[in-house]
Amino acid sequence: MGETGVNAGKAEAAPQRAEERGLRRQLSAGQMAMVGVGGSIGTGLLLGSGAAVQIAGPSVILSFLAAALITWTVTMAMGEMASVHPAAGSFGVYAELYLNSWAGFISRYGYWLAIALAIGGEMVAAATYMHFWLPQIHAIVWVVVLAAALVGVNLRTVGDYGRVEYWFAMIKLVTIMAFVILGAFLLLSRHVAPQYTAQGGFFPNGRVAPLLAMSFSLFTFAGIEMVAISSGESRSREEIPRAVRLTFALLTFAYLGAITVLVGVMPWNGAGVSESPFVTVFRHVGLPAASHLMNFVVLSAALSGANASLYVDSRTLFSLARGGYAPASMGRLNAAGAPLPALLVSSFGILVALGMEKWAPKDAFVGILGAALFGAMLAWLVALAAHVRFRQKLSAAELAALPMRSPGGATASVLGFTGIVVALAATWWYSRVTVLSGVLYMLVLTVAYWLMKPRKIA
Q1: In the prediction, which pLDDT does 4 show?
Q2: In angstroms, rounded to a whole number, what is the distance separating the alpha carbons of residues 37 and 42?
Q3: In this predicted model, what pLDDT tens digit does every residue of 5-43 receive, in sequence order?
Q4: Fewest CB within 10 A of the end CB: N or C in the chain?
Q5: Which is nearest to 196 in space by CA: 265, 106, 288?
Q6: How far is residue 201's CA from residue 188's CA, in Å, rounded to a whole number?
Q7: Does residue 12 fall inside a structural domain?
Q8: What's the domain range around 173?
Q9: Residue 10 belongs to a domain
């Protein structure tokens, strides 16, 4: 893409980008928001929160609060740019317009790989939840059956997909809100003794622990960028600002409310990753029937997360193909307007899940989560850097005319960028998977970019 700058971007901000012709523009603001909610409220909160609580104890509340502030900067930056450049390529397109083609390449491929692995993580989580009911059936069976169903949903029109994901995500959103209300009632009415300082104080693992748990907290919010990706199939640009604000508001309430109740109702050292902490909480307060209901909800949450991830991952690979950085066949659409080849290739994370369930079931979820984290955060970092450059190119008149404006502007994006880098660096002290996989990601993707740059894939 040769042109850069705001004026070039305005020329691109037509109802549909030339590179993305064929995609159906059928998603409403509510459906786009639920894609973001569905992709975010999955294993990250419902199973991954156990890992964060183990690291920081009750002070994990501070980790989630800081993660919410960082996510706010990402949300506003992506929302602002998506309202001008609605595209399935999302942050990759923003990077090509305002940074360089290298940034667009590594962010999309890094994200594609990360989300593909995250799909595998969701499948591992879904198998864990099914084990709660039917321990005699091997997890691999559940991974195969559930994955086939999700691929089928994604092969339908985006309007049909949006309706399925909307109600899928609504199940877990409503239940988490009910969980927050129930937990608050139990704590305020003294039916349950608050656990915030009962097991070694608010900082049982030290005052640095909230920083060490930041990466898991940030990963719970990963998925909010899916709203920007879905903007390429939005009904209109006017839907995008509403979808972005709604997604952030819903996720912030759900995450901060849920984690505050979680560590208040149950001892922090009782949380883990072999069972959802939410199921543990319901059993802990003596509501066994509710634990079965919650297990159904977290199962639907994992499947919704995988469903949303499969959608955005196929669109990311589709965008790369239409841009010349993946085989042209990945840019083909079926009669329903779904990128069938890209969808099938993006399912490879499910094979990873099958392998990890067979050879490393105890460490499967944490391993996948750590390996996937850097790729998701790389997309955020590139988007924030692109937003700073985007703002630098705006005149006062162009700034005033933006369909959506980030209140913090470029300053907020710089602060968010710094926060993500610090959180990623902090993972070195308890798990080096994220940092090492991050270095490997950058090396492999950079080599791939330079090999493919002289002549894009035909």
Answers
A1: 41
A2: 9
A3: 444 444 333 445 656 677 888 898 999 999 988 888 765
A4: C
A5: 265
A6: 20
A7: no
A8: 23-452
A9: no
Count structural domains, the chain: 1
Output the six-digit token pair for 231: 């903007």
User: Residue 74's pLDDT band (boundaries 50, 70, 90)?
Assistant: very high
CATH code of 193's domain: 1.20.1740.10
The CA-atom distances, in angstroms, between 25 and each of 28, 160, 301 are 9, 12, 26
Please check whether residue 225 is in contact with residue 77, taking contact to mean a CB–CB distance below 8 angstroms.
no
Inter-residue contact 271 to 129 (CB < 8 Å): no
292: which 2 tokens?
């079965």
Joined together, the tokens standing for residue 253 give 């309430």
For 198, list phi and psi in degrees, rounded to 5: -75, -25
Q: Percent helix, strand and coil across the chain, each rounded to 5?
A: 75, 0, 25
Which amino acid does the sequence have at 205? N
Q: What is the mean pLDDT of the chain?
A: 83
C-alpha dihedral, 165 to 217 to 107 to 7, nearest 10° = 80
Pick the closest to residue 187 from 255, 260, 247, 132 (CA basis).
Answer: 260
Answer yes or no: is 422 within a domain: yes
23 vs 173, 240, 315, 351, CA distance in Å?
A: 28, 17, 9, 27
Domain presence at residue 4: no
Q: Which residues contact 380 (CB under 8 A, 6 or more apart)?
A: 74, 91, 222, 225, 416, 420
Q: Which pLDDT band, with edges at 50, 70 and 90, does 143 fall under?
A: confident
C-alpha distances in Å from residue 109, one per residue of 45, 210, 248, 339, 423: 25, 30, 25, 17, 22
Helix, strand, or coil (residue 167): helix
**Which residues are paired to 234 by β-bridges?**
27
Q: Fill in the amino acid letter for 155.
A: L
- Residue 415 pLDDT exceeds 70: yes
Cβ-in-10-Å burial (0-12, 13-18, 19+) of 362 comes to exposed
